[in-house]
């Protein structure tokens, strides 16, 4: 996330130092990318997806970037469907009993 933040704040050289450290820790033979701009940021995001696969981070990243996500065809529910970041089906309601019984929510 640090590498992405630096890249998005026009500090690409500093970002590549951070990104290289992560990538070389994963793969000692990693060679610094020559990608720049949007292509470089996409490389960072691809790396994050690989590193955090199965950790549940894609939902928050999708919301933060206001992106859409397409579920793979292997999903039991909504397989192959695309969801926008603001789709109501992605928001979870607080149960009414929790609202009624939690004074911090009133």
Automatic annotation (TrEMBL):
Q: Which residues cross the membrane?
A: none
What InterPro entries does the entry give? SusD_RagB_dom, TPR-like_helical_dom_sf
Query: RagB/SusD domain spans which residues?
Result: 1-106
Keyword set for this entry? Cell outer membrane, Membrane, Signal
Task: Output the SUPFAM superfamilies linked to this UniProt entry.
Answer: TPR-like (SSF48452)
Location in or out of the cell: Cell outer membrane
Stated name of the protein: RagB/SusD family nutrient uptake outer membrane protein
List, alphabetically, the Gene3D superfamilies matched: 1.25.40.390, 1.25.40.900
Domain of life, per UniProt, equals Bacteria
Q: Identify its protein family.
A: Belongs to the SusD family.
